[in-house]
């Protein structure tokens, strides 16, 4: 409630991951399309495109994590309407590794947010030009704060 005026708060929240699914990443700037939808209140997340479209204006929190296999390094970025907002690097020589990040953003209705590979995918040893992301360690979540 602001200045005595009640606000009808809509429940907007989503959480998705790759548990039970996988995606081959073989292009730069490739959107991660999370198919395992845990929650999608407000129907802002599209499991066919991997893009969250803001159902209403407000301040939102977003979290994303990237998990990779041995000998792979992967830099992913959180995008807002085609511009980089934050990034997360995962990589390890000897074991699986996870990188994550969280941001809070003021958004307008219709803004689009997604996670994609960075234009500079690199590795340490035997990069084949392809990375497979899978498991619940690769996730993307967001919710309306106010």
From TrEMBL:
Protein name (database record): Cerebellin-1
GO CC term (a single one): extracellular region
Organism in which the protein naturally occurs: Magallana gigas (Pacific oyster)
PROSITE patterns: C1Q (PS50871)
Record keywords: Secreted
Pfam families noted in UniProt: C1q
Domain of life of the source: Eukaryota
InterPro entries named among the record's database cross-references: C1q_dom, Collagen/C1q_domain, Tumour_necrosis_fac-like_dom
Location of this chain's protein in the cell: Secreted
Main localization (coarse): secreted
């Amino acid at each position: 409630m602001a200045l005595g005026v009640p606000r009808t708060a809509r429940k907007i929240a989503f959480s998705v991951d790759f548990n039970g699914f996988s995606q081959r990443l073989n292009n730069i700037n490739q959107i991660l399309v999370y198919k395992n939808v845990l929650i999608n209140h407000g129907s802002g997340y599209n499991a066919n495109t991997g893009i969250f479209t803001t159902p209403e204006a407000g301040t939102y929190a977003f979290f994303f994590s990237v998990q990779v296999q041995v000998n792979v390094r992967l830099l992913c970025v959180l995008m807002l309407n085609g511009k980089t907002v934050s990034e997360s690097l995962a990589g390890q020589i000897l074991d699986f590794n996870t990188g994550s990040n969280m941001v809070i953003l003021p958004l307008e209705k219709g803004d689009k947010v997604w996670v994609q590979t960075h234009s500079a995918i690199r590795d340490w040893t035997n990069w084949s030009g392809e990375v497979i992301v899978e498991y619940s360690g690769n996730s993307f979540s967001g919710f309306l704060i106010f």
